[in-house]
Amino acid sequence: MVRILTARPLAGYRLQVRFNDGLEGIFPVEPERRGGVFLKLLDARVFNAVAVDPDFGCVEWPGGVDLCPDTMHQAMTSVAAELPTPMVLREEAPPRSGNGN
């Protein structure tokens, strides 16, 4: 089961997190996009009060706002899959046929 061990608030509504499987990185919380109860996190004092729930291994804030560690982990590990494919700068010439052309 994936659990968050540490979470540190960063500027721009991001969290520096470390998971129990060794994954570490920055997770963008994006309260504006999430809406609802997450809009409470636009208050810097509330956002900076982030804590890790020791029983569930999730990040949580005052007022009952929390994020699922499995969802966060999946989002952080699938970032590479969402990056654009590198452009091909030069294509290799097709193999020549055996007739000398």
Task: Based on the model shown, name its key terms.
101 residues, alpha+beta, NE0471 N-terminal domain-like, three-stranded antiparallel β-sheet, 4 helices, 6 strands
Commentary on this structure:
The structure is a single chain. With 101 residues, the chain is α+β, with helices and mostly antiparallel strands. The chain has one domain (4-79): NE0471 N-terminal domain-like, CATH 3.30.2020. 21% of the residues lie in helices and 26% in strands. The protein contains four helices and six strands. Strands 1-2-3 form a three-stranded antiparallel β-sheet, covered by helices on one side. It has a three-stranded antiparallel β-sheet with strand order 4-5-6. Strand 4 (51-52) and strand 5 (59-61) form a beta hairpin. The radius of gyration is 21 Å and the shape is globular. It starts with a strand and ends in a 19-residue tail after the last helix. Residues 81-94 have low confidence and may be disordered.
Terminal CA distance: 60 Å
Radius of gyration: 21 Å
What is the fold-level CATH name, i.e. the topology?
NE0471 N-terminal domain-like
CATH architecture heading: 2-Layer Sandwich
Order of helices and strands: EEEHHEEEHH
CATH homologous superfamily heading: NE0471-like N-terminal domain
* Low-confidence region ranges: 81-94
